[in-house]
Amino acid sequence: MESKHRSSGDRQCSALLDRAARTLRHFTEDSLWSYWTAALRLASRMPGAPRKLSRIAHAADSNQLADYLAEIRFALIFAALGFTAEIEPLGNKGPDLQISRDGRSSMVEVLRFKHVYPGPPEFKETDLFIASYGNPQRDSLKALQKVQDKFRQLGNDDCFLAIWNDDGDMEETHVLTAAHMLRDDTEAGILQLPTGLSFVLYGSQWMRCSNNQQLYCFPLRRRLPDHQTQWMSELEHLRVNVAVCRLIGYP
């Protein structure tokens, strides 16, 4: 009976994977389709994967799809570091992931920054000055608001926020500023953080030239447990593109 049940579950997951791949084909560039198909194939083996594959298969547009793929990307990042990742461990109203390793676990709520504000106007050879763009104060407040909006989805368990940034105007410094504001307001008694919330993880496609760093961790408390400090160090030293491509077997 158990074998039949597993076989049925495998067939369901395979069908969802095929449907998700068709959605990818519709909304993503051809150059990214094979990468994300390989990523979903590996993620489909994770606990809770069918729920996420179903959401991807029914994505209404490219923005919604990108939100789901941000969650998949972080699940693979943690898998590359030896964590077991469970997708939507509490259903669709709870955190997006639960990661576990060496007897320690944490909930992870994922959010994605999409591009909202226009970039600079097109530069012409006849222009004497390059137009400035971006607004550090605005973008820091945007980061702060989006982080706070996620608080209601976090319970009292150990947890942290994982941000993937697709907004070219936003930088890690804006998220760092937001994290400092949250920590200062908490220490001043103005704001109460969710009980188990420890740090914010930030990543984007941009890499620091000096060391190819893509991930940054910003503590929300002055002191964190040793294992979380270790996790943050490992994340910041991870070469995301290399590690994930190796994990999914993508050339």
Walk me through the topology.
Layout: H1 2-27, H2 30-43, H3 49-57, H4 62-80, E1 84-87, E2 97-101, E3 104-113, H5 136-149, E4 159-165, H6 172-187, E5 197-204, E6 215-219, H7 226-237, H8 240-248
Parallel strand pairs: 3-4, 4-5
Antiparallel strand pairs: 1-2, 2-3, 5-6
How would you sum up this structure in a few lines?
This protein is α/β, with parallel strands linked by helices. Helices cover 47% and strands 16% of the residues.
If you had to describe this structure to a student in words, what would you say it looks like?
- It is built from 8 helices and 6 strands; from the N terminus they run ααααβββαβαββαα.
- It is globular and about 55 Å long.
- A 6-stranded mixed β-sheet has the order 1-2-3-4-5-6, with helices on both faces.
- α1 runs parallel beside α3 (49-57).
- It has one domain (63-248).
- The protein is an alpha/beta fold and 251 residues long.
